[in-house]
């Protein structure tokens, strides 16, 4: 007796239910929802896939369908492996499935779909989504650095679903450089996709070399008009040539006497306290540059210190348009589930907004102008750039756990 009909196509969420039907040798008919659109519409007017129909029973949503298909198996050991043998394991399976399906895949789509031209491109929205992808990738990398699989110590439904979801990242976003930075995720992905359950789905899979780029708009050719010889004008009445608009607002300030690149080389190559910092204060010009205390506004939401440091790294990456006018450092102080982000940044001019607002998440930080003529402000800059003293927060010393330098 037929166990039902599964509507599933090329979409990534249908890969796991298709694979389960094949692997478990279930008596389930798999129909292409495009070719069988009329039948799909009769059974499921919403036409959402995957969809499953049995006698007097209908089911939508991939996670629910996967659960049902696994329970059609007579192999109790396999069911416990896939769904979890204890309530704790079962909860972890659901947790990682939900993370991949509802959060990770959704944020990846917010990046690659605008780059594909499927959705309108908005730089701030794409950059914000990419920051979320990087944060979630750090969570996965941390877990998979210390464990072979996600939910338990063996392959489970959590791995199958997460592998299918992250495939879109490897299709469009995760190039060679990204993979080198996330070796644990790549190792896990290769292990899961090569499993007996999924390997049929990945026979033609190939990694990309680099992230998909924003498509260039094609210029429409305008019909040529008959050329008219312009009337000669006296030299004194010719319109003055229009000056080019500065590429960055801070470019209008012109060159400074303080050579920022020279300071960056000094900081990178010399001992910070005994050599670099004295050189900085000797050459720093407060009329050309200003110093700012930068603090993350939502420290109470931070958890793992490595994730906080990734947050800083993402912020600095999104400041790339302004780095030729800036230098600074943000540190992560404290410990896991009790940490914060603070630092000191020098920038061209006296207004912080033109330098920082190139990053879509710049308003997640507060900015306080420092006065280097005050010894306490000068010492704060020294400490933030030297990383050799604890951060004092509300009178309590907090050790520096990590940090990033913007240069």
UniProtKB/TrEMBL annotation:
**One Pfam family from the UniProt entry?**
GST_N
Residue ranges constituting the GST C-terminal domain according to the UniProt record: 86-212
**What PROSITE patterns would the database entry show?**
EF1G_C (PS50040), GST_CTER (PS50405)
Q: Where is this region: Disordered?
A: 218-247
Molecular function GO labels = translation elongation factor activity
Q: Where is the EF-1-gamma C-terminal domain?
A: 246-407
The record's annotation in SMART domains points to: EF1G (SM01183)
Keywords for this protein: Elongation factor, Protein biosynthesis
Q: Where is the signal peptide?
A: none
InterPro entries, A to Z = EF-GSTs (IPR050802), EF1B_G_C (IPR001662), EF1B_G_C_sf (IPR036433), Glutathione-S-Trfase_C-like (IPR010987), Glutathione-S-Trfase_C_sf (IPR036282), Glutathione_S-Trfase (IPR040079), Glutathione_S-Trfase_N (IPR004045), GST_C (IPR004046)
Q: Which domain of life is it from?
A: Eukaryota
In which residue ranges is the amino acid composition biased (Basic and acidic residues)? 218-235
The protein's name in its UniProt record: Elongation factor 1-gamma 2
